[in-house]
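Hey,
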Amino acid sequence: MKKFTLFAMMLLAASFAFAQEDDTDGSTLEQPVRKPVETVWEQVNTGDFTDPVAYPPVRQADVMYYWTVWRIIDLREKVNHPLYFPTEVRGTWRSLGQTIFDAIDISNPEKTEGVLPVYSDEMCTLPYSRDELQSIISQTQTITEYDIESGEEIGTKELIIQFEPKEIINYRIKEVWYFDKQYSTFRVQILEIEPIIEYERPTSNSSYDEDEEDQEAVAANKTQKRLGYIYYNELRPFLAHQEVFNVKNQAARLSFDDLITWKRDFSSLIYKESNRYDRDIQDYIANSRDQRIESERITEKLRTFEHDLWEF
């Protein structure tokens, strides 16, 4: 009886194994022969990143000084390339723009839970609806349709083209610098971030030749569009779970939250500070060179304040 039971179990296991093989299409070309070859050692899954590290607690009574500044992060600068690349998803690596687009998840307009809200005002109090957000990150382009045989114009057609993460060319951030007398530290926290999309205006001319004149025309035809304001504390959980390429050591895993929030490993330019007129630097300084000098003056003012707090 025991032998019969063992034999039946063996037949059942064999039939299950053959059934699993029958589920495949029999092709071996689409089946990977090994794990991705990236290193000379065996890759071990170290798990996902943890939740973002909480900011140190701060009380209003302990803040003896604070100043608000606005910065622009230009992704065309070499030091900011880790935020822009890769332009396409490569394994677990994504750009900052792709991470934001995935967090917004506009491809699923019915989804309302677990998505990143985008706000219409700088104070992050009025969120866009899903339909409004869909219209913001896409553009309608009118194309001319022609008859295949005669080549005559038969009408027009509207196409809805969604912007891509690689079209985000800079970010505007608002941050607060404050001195906490409880810990005797001068700290900074980002309040909100605003992606800026640069795209080409749709034109009626569908022909394009890659000569010098056409390239200049395309460059002159580009315009910028604001995606909306994102509350940085709501974005941090998505940044903390996204791995970023470490330009110094690939063995040291680094998330976008580590790179931006704590290491602040990016280059930026101050374009506005707190002022009674609520104006940007370019509103009262026209020359671009003098604008940069004014930006450096504001940076030096914050640095000097921290330096003068101590006696040596």
